[in-house]
Amino acid sequence: MTSKVTKADSGTPMVKAEGVHKSFGPVEVLKGIDLEVKPGEVFCLIGPSGSGKSTFLRCINHLEKVNAGRLYVDGELVGYRQKGDKLYELKDSEVALKRRDIGMVFQRFNLFPHMTALENVMEAPVQVKGVSRAQARERAGQLLERVGLADKAGNYPTQLSGGQQQRVAIARALAMDPKLMLFDEPTSALDPELVGDVLDVMRDLAESGMTMVVVTHEMGFAREVGDSLVFMDEGVVVESGHPRDVLTNPQHERTQSFLSKVL
Amino acid sequence: MTADIDKTAGPESTPPAGPEAIKAIPVRHYGRYISAVAAIAIFVSIVYAFAQGQINWDAIPEYFFDDRILKGVGQTMLLTVLSMVIGIVGGVVLAVMRLSKNPVTSSIAWFYIWFFRGTPVLVQLVVWFNLGLVFEYINLGFVYKDYWSSFMTPLLTALLGLGLNEAAYMAEICRAGLLSVDEGQTEASHALGMSHSKTLRRIVIPQAMRVIVPPTGNEVINMLKTTSLVSVVQFSELFRYAQDIGQSSGAPVEMYFLAAAWYLVLTSVLSVGQYYVERYYARGSSRSLPATPLQKIRANLLSLSNRSGGGAKA
Ligand SMILES: Nc1ncnc2c1ncn2[C@@H]1O[C@H](COP(=O)(O)OP(=O)(O)O)[C@@H](O)[C@H]1O
Ligand SMILES: [Mg+2]
């Protein structure tokens, strides 16, 4: 891969995948993924359903174990420690430590239903980082304001619309001050009129310089906000490049047929 | 695309002035009247039969607050609470063990549940009581050493017998509860960097409680009644004291009635407690929580007074 610098170029890529393979039993879902996400970049991942996008995203924060290949986040191997030419599995506590720095936003929000919006955002800083409750509450309030939900702090998730829940989920991830944010189809479960609010928050986040890996079907967002785009199909990267190029002038026949269906 | 979605105010909130309210004759449920009359008749005849029987009813109020009975009630409650604590803590641990990926851990839990659910609790109590035949001493190194028989007090025997048996049942209830929580919750929690144990304690268990509490309420009530078995290990509680009084006072049957009445009182109190615990764990699960009985009563009174107040003004 040639390095076409877009934003920051601090040397180490934020995410680097080298021949990443992942199988569930006999089914090989990822068949050698190579890609590189630079710091500060908005990296979009598109592809048909079942092509392995979610699986790849989940490998990045080690919710799934990679079977072969190497995956690095900020220069560090995900899930393993390398000593000489031997790999040692990391302990759960070490994995947890690394996950602090990686925020994840899910298609189905996965807010904690027994906690209010504010408590959802406060939970991890208090429990994981040992931040005082007062401090965490103040920060959570600021984050909810940032996603436009200051007035919903006391609401339980069931009392929020899908779009509001997803924005709380983004605030919850941001509360850990991650250096990388993963979005797995953050707007796919939303009513069309609520999609815009979530995308606005994500656009704002991108402008603030956050490194983001976004699995999405929102081609408009990818084109406007994305710095790089990868089209995945059946566990391989079919085509990659700048979103404008790939979306307007796809080279591969598979990309063309996919785009003709979604655009 | 605006950042704020302000749902435009829905339909007009003022009631429509148009159509007249419907005044229809409601469906008559004759079956209900007939069954109510039949039920009352049967109930009255049963009460009458008991009132006519050879039972000295006066003995019941006489002994209802007897010191020994009150002590028995206290012991019964103590035993119920402590056994349930052992049962619930043990149950949660066993449930987590059974769901563990470690085959050794899950097999141990499986075996425990298989054994303790498979044998009658009365038999277990007697075995605990007689375990001195197997272990003459109890030896915890430097910490503690004693004869088994003096270590195993009746209370401890009863607690072990009831609590460990209960843990096997609670394990299955807790397992069902833990499984009822969406996997996405665990994932979200792990993704935030929370450890397994924090995820369990802070995220999964509080949500599992909604499923766990109702059957656990059942278990508590069952436990309360099962404590009446522990006289076999020489522990005295409500039933045993009632029996003793019955024998010395010459009113044995009356004392059984008395005990039954006390058990009813206790289970009723527990049912009320269960209602509030369920309500606590329901937070966030529905758009608005059901009103408590007190709130209902207050609301009814308010609406009554409003209605009469409105009528007075008119
Ligand atoms: N835990 C799992 N066990 C078995 N198969 C899985 C699991 N997770 C995903 N898969 C399979 O992997 C494939 C890719 O899934 P996924 O990564 O979710 O695709 P995408 O997000 O691109 O739609 C699918 O065929 C799916 O059925
Ligand atoms: Mg997916």
TrEMBL record, chain A:
<dbReference type="InterPro" id="IPR003439">
    <property type="entry name" value="ABC_transporter-like_ATP-bd"/>
</dbReference>
<dbReference type="GO" id="GO:0005524">
    <property type="term" value="F:ATP binding"/>
</dbReference>
<keyword id="KW-1003">Cell membrane</keyword>
<comment type="similarity">
    <text>Belongs to the ABC transporter superfamily.</text>
</comment>
<keyword id="KW-0472">Membrane</keyword>
<dbReference type="GO" id="GO:0015426">
    <property type="term" value="F:ATPase-coupled polar amino acid-transporter activity"/>
</dbReference>
<dbReference type="Pfam" id="PF00005">
    <property type="entry name" value="ABC_tran"/>
</dbReference>
<keyword id="KW-0547">Nucleotide-binding</keyword>
<feature type="domain" description="ABC transporter">
    <location>
        <begin position="15"/>
        <end position="259"/>
    </location>
</feature>
<dbReference type="GO" id="GO:0016887">
    <property type="term" value="F:ATP hydrolysis activity"/>
</dbReference>
<dbReference type="InterPro" id="IPR027417">
    <property type="entry name" value="P-loop_NTPase"/>
</dbReference>
<dbReference type="InterPro" id="IPR017871">
    <property type="entry name" value="ABC_transporter-like_CS"/>
</dbReference>
<dbReference type="GO" id="GO:0005886">
    <property type="term" value="C:plasma membrane"/>
</dbReference>
<keyword id="KW-0813">Transport</keyword>
<keyword id="KW-0029">Amino-acid transport</keyword>
<keyword id="KW-0067">ATP-binding</keyword>
<protein>
    <recommendedName>
        <fullName>ABC-type polar-amino-acid transporter</fullName>
        <ecNumber>7.4.2.1</ecNumber>
    </recommendedName>
</protein>
<dbReference type="InterPro" id="IPR030679">
    <property type="entry name" value="ABC_ATPase_HisP-typ"/>
</dbReference>
<dbReference type="InterPro" id="IPR050086">
    <property type="entry name" value="MetN_ABC_transporter-like"/>
</dbReference>
<dbReference type="InterPro" id="IPR003593">
    <property type="entry name" value="AAA+_ATPase"/>
</dbReference>
UniProtKB/TrEMBL annotation, chain B:
<feature type="transmembrane region" description="Helical">
    <location>
        <begin position="255"/>
        <end position="277"/>
    </location>
</feature>
<dbReference type="InterPro" id="IPR010065">
    <property type="entry name" value="AA_ABC_transptr_permease_3TM"/>
</dbReference>
<keyword id="KW-0029">Amino-acid transport</keyword>
<dbReference type="Pfam" id="PF00528">
    <property type="entry name" value="BPD_transp_1"/>
</dbReference>
<keyword id="KW-0813">Transport</keyword>
<dbReference type="InterPro" id="IPR000515">
    <property type="entry name" value="MetI-like"/>
</dbReference>
<comment type="subunit">
    <text>The HisPMQJ complex is composed of two ATP-binding proteins (HisP), two transmembrane proteins (HisM and HisQ) and a solute-binding protein (HisJ). The HisPMQ-ArgT complex is composed of two ATP-binding proteins (HisP), two transmembrane proteins (HisM and HisQ) and a solute-binding protein (ArgT).</text>
</comment>
<protein>
    <recommendedName>
        <fullName>Histidine/lysine/arginine/ornithine transport system permease protein HisM</fullName>
    </recommendedName>
</protein>
<feature type="transmembrane region" description="Helical">
    <location>
        <begin position="147"/>
        <end position="165"/>
    </location>
</feature>
<dbReference type="GO" id="GO:0043190">
    <property type="term" value="C:ATP-binding cassette (ABC) transporter complex"/>
</dbReference>
<keyword id="KW-1003">Cell membrane</keyword>
<keyword id="KW-1133">Transmembrane helix</keyword>
<dbReference type="InterPro" id="IPR051322">
    <property type="entry name" value="AA_ABC_Transporter_Permease"/>
</dbReference>
<feature type="domain" description="ABC transmembrane type-1">
    <location>
        <begin position="73"/>
        <end position="274"/>
    </location>
</feature>
<keyword id="KW-0472">Membrane</keyword>
<dbReference type="InterPro" id="IPR035906">
    <property type="entry name" value="MetI-like_sf"/>
</dbReference>
<dbReference type="GO" id="GO:0022857">
    <property type="term" value="F:transmembrane transporter activity"/>
</dbReference>
<feature type="transmembrane region" description="Helical">
    <location>
        <begin position="109"/>
        <end position="135"/>
    </location>
</feature>
<feature type="transmembrane region" description="Helical">
    <location>
        <begin position="33"/>
        <end position="55"/>
    </location>
</feature>
<comment type="similarity">
    <text>Belongs to the binding-protein-dependent transport system permease family.</text>
</comment>
<keyword id="KW-0812">Transmembrane</keyword>
<dbReference type="GO" id="GO:0006865">
    <property type="term" value="P:amino acid transport"/>
</dbReference>
